[in-house]
Amino acid sequence: MARRSWSRLRIDQRGAAVIELALVLPMVIMFIFGLIEGARAIWTFQTLQETAFKAARCMVIGRTPCESTDDARNYAVAIAGQSNITVPLDGVTAEAAATCDGLGGQGRVQIVMPYEVVIGSFLNMDISNLTVTACMPVPPSS
Question: Which residues form the TadE-like domain (predicted)?
Fold first, then answer.
């Protein structure tokens, strides 16, 4: 009798889908959250790059609200804040006369922002800082 019930158990497929789902679902969820985290990091990086570009351009033009390097730093923090990104003021550096990629006479803005991955401990993702740099040529004085 025991032999007969073992053979019936091997043939019975009820519950197999639940077991397969329990084995595969954690990997699928990790993959989906990994995509979300990666997309969020790319979006944040791109927004910071655009912010640095706008601040560098504003600084070299020298008009309000960027009449000095401190004003350009505050402008960068404000622009990032419009996209709900909190950039610390001490993470923004602005130089009115810098060298970028071997070219002198450039206005340079660099933003270093601490970045925390929401589910990094589960996905083994370690992004501690996002760093962006933007340079703009200083227009000749007239």
Answer: 15-57
